[in-house]
Amino acid sequence: MQYFKTLKYGLHVMVHPFDGFWDLKRERRGSLAAALTIVVLTIVTYVVQKQNTAFLFNFNRLEQLNVTEDIITVFLLFLLWCVSSWCLTSLMDGEGTLKDIAIATGYAILPIVLINLPLVAISYVIAADEGAFYYTFGTISYLWAGGLLFFSMMVTHQYSFKKTIMTVILTILGMAIILFLGLLFFSVIQKIIIFALTIYKEIRFR
Question: Model-level pTM?
Answer without folding.
Answer: 0.87
